[in-house]
Amino acid sequence: MALLRVSSTDGKDMPKPKTDSNTNSMQLPKGWDSFVPELANIKNAHTITKRQWGAFYGTDLDLQLRRRGIDTIVLCGISTGIGVDTTAREAYQHGYNQIFVEDAMTASMKEEHDYVCRYIFPRIGQVRTSEEVVSSLG
After folding, report:
1. Is residue 89 part of a domain?
2. Which residues lie in Basic and acidic residues bias regions (predicted)?
3. In angstroms, rounded to a whole number, what is the distance separating the alpha carbons of residues 56 and 53?
4. DSSP per residue over 58-69, as a string?
5. What's the CA gap between 97 and 34, in Å, rounded?
6. What is the rounded CA–CA span in Å between residue 75 and residue 103?
7. Assigned domain for 39 exists
8. Which pairs with CB-CB distance under 8 Å and at least 24 residues apart come from 62-69?
9. Tens digits of per-residue pLDDT, 10-32?
10. For residues 62 and 94, is the Cβ–Cβ distance under 8 A?
11. Residue 77: which region, alpha, beta or left (left: phi > 0; alpha: psi -120 to 50)?
């Protein structure tokens, strides 16, 4: 199993291109990038830290998944239309099967979340609820 988190100690490794959108840097609380105990205590899980929107760029995620024979990933996260969407598109281009846990992700605007879940994710994977994902594991 591979676990992924976004993190930056000082923000200097985050992209800062010129954009038309105001991208104020947020003050994040201590421990914001920690896993919940149920995930943090999984034995033999490989942890990957991403510093870009997508989880594949600049990480060894693809290598680690392939070494472990993993061909399906379950995606959730803080920003449906940014980090989750970018990672999903990268995973699709790498040939991974994907399950999107719609109620375990969010966006700054409901419309953004709904659009990506309704029109993008079904084209590149399967959209499911957390209850459906958990029940499929048993």
Report:
1. yes
2. 10-19
3. 9
4. TSSHHHHHHHTT
5. 26
6. 11
7. yes
8. 62/94, 64/2, 65/2, 65/96, 68/1, 68/2
9. 666 666 767 677 665 666 667 66
10. yes
11. left
Length in residues, the chain = 138
The first and second tokens of residue 16, run together, are: 């800062």
What does the alpha-carbon distance between residue 68 and residue 85 come to, in Å, rounded to a whole number? 24
The answer to whether position 69 is within a domain reads yes
Pairing of strands 72-77, 46-50: unpaired
pTM score, whole prediction: 0.82
Q: How far is CA 33 from CA 73, 128, 129, in A?
A: 20, 24, 23
Q: What is the CATH number of the domain that holds 103?
A: 3.40.50.850
Q: Can you read off the two tokens belonging to residue 17?
A: 């291109």
**Residue appearing with tokens 């309704």:** 118
- Give how many domains the chain has, as a whole number: 1
Q: Which two tokens stand for residue 119?
A: 């029109």
Domain hosting residue 56, numbered range = 2-6+35-137
